[in-house]
Amino acid sequence: MGDIKKGLEGVVALDTSISFIDGLQGILKYRGIEVEHLAEMSYDAVSYLLINGILPDEQELTDYSSRLKNERFLHHNMADVLKICEFGIESLDLLRTAISCSAHFDTEKDIHSPEANINKAIRLVAKFPTMVAALERNRIGVEPIGPNNDLSHGANFLYMLTGRIPTDLEAEAIEKDFILSAEHELNPSTFSLRIAASTLSDLYSAIICGLCTLKGPLHGGARKGVMDMLDEVISPDNAENYIQDKISKKEKIMGFGHRVYKTYDPRAQVYKDIARRISLENGDTVWYDMAEKLEHIMYHEFIELRGKPIYPNVDFYSAVVYKYLDIPSELATSVFAIGRVSGWIAHCLEQYSDNRVIRPRANFV
Ligand code: CMC
């Protein structure tokens, strides 16, 4: 057997037309379009692009958005399921259970035709925000709120979470968050669900694989890690000590470093801008100032002193945005998943369309 690449670093496992990353130049494209450009569109348009392969025209977007809105509501039995899901555990564990239960209310769960898969895809994209908001409201002991179909995908999520119509900037921030989180080539969660899909397991099962893998602190769980770090640092004045302490204990600093990017993650730049704007609107820039200070110290310690390309990744400034949106850290990975589900679905559909079971080998030692 050939050389083993620990962590499959640099291994190319499949062809994809869903996204492209140039990790040296900091370029990310979904279906050939730069993510910075996509961040100016609606999540519905980007979700359509990922799942269908092309941007929708005006009529297609109207139809897609209205199908999503019709599917935002949960099956009436799900209200009870979500209530009994309150086990006092992290939100992503609840979401995983909720998605699993919701599959049983989908009459097309085990129908694998392309039409049935698109119907299930739309249900999943539409219901993720409703479930996450309801789980959180149950957790804090208040009644879940139904969707408001006058609002966009992102704004409606914030409305269902807080009961308040978000400001224009808050709505823009969460919509951009969902778009920037939507897709990232063969990251761990996407790879895990492509393996599930390659066994011809159903779409719900594959998505649950993705959720379970997203949870880890080295992947999507890092967003919660950054929020917790900001709570621990408290003030920009403590940033230096915090980083030096982590370095001396050889611990990772959450929200920094990437397997593929050896330069600034292009998503982090967009998040940084929105974090700065929302901090100014909020009139309290402490979270943003603290993050900038942490970034400067990290730059000095790793890039200038050690020559290691450790830049902020997607989870760093997104966590600052979540702070300003009052999203609790326990919810961060689930909110990440709301955006990511469109990319996950696109990868499942791509896997089904030209399938061979993914089954590598191991070297016996
Ligand atoms: N803080 C301190 N040192 C770091 C960090 C960090 N965040 N990231 C990498 N390093 C160091 C690491 O200690 C190692 O040093 P040495 O060569 O002296 O042993 C070197 O850089 C290479 O690190 P690695 O862990 O071998 O790199 P990897 O490609 O296996 O892992 C990573 C990539 C993202 C898991 C890692 O950078 C990390 O753990 N970062 C913190 C967690 C995080 O922010 N995860 C989010 C990932 S991106 C978005 C997502 O997936 O959701």
Please tell me about this protein's structure.
This protein is mainly α and 365 residues long. It is 58% helix and 3% strand. The chain has a three-stranded antiparallel β-sheet. Carboxymethyl coenzyme *A binds next to helix 15. The site of carboxymethyl coenzyme *A has 19 residues, from helix 15.
Give a summary of the structure in a few sentences.
This protein has 365 residues and is mainly alpha-helical. The protein has helices at residues 35-38, 43-52, 58-70, 76-84, 91-103, 114-139, 153-162, 168-180, 188-198, 203-214, 222-233, 239-248, 266-282, 286-305, 314-324, 332-353, and strands spanning 19-22, 27-30, 33-34. It contains 16 helices and three strands.
Termini, distance in Å? 12 Å
Please bin the fraction of helical residues. 55-70%
Give the averaged pLDDT, no decimals. 96
Specify the number of helices.
Answer: 16
Q: How many strand elements?
A: 3
Q: Main sheet, how many strands, which sense, barrel?
A: 3 strands, antiparallel
- Order of SSEs: EEEHHHHHHHHHHHHHHHH
> In what range is the share of β-strand residues?
under 5%
Which consecutive residue ranges, at least 5 long each, have pLDDT under 50?
Answer: none
Structural class: mainly alpha
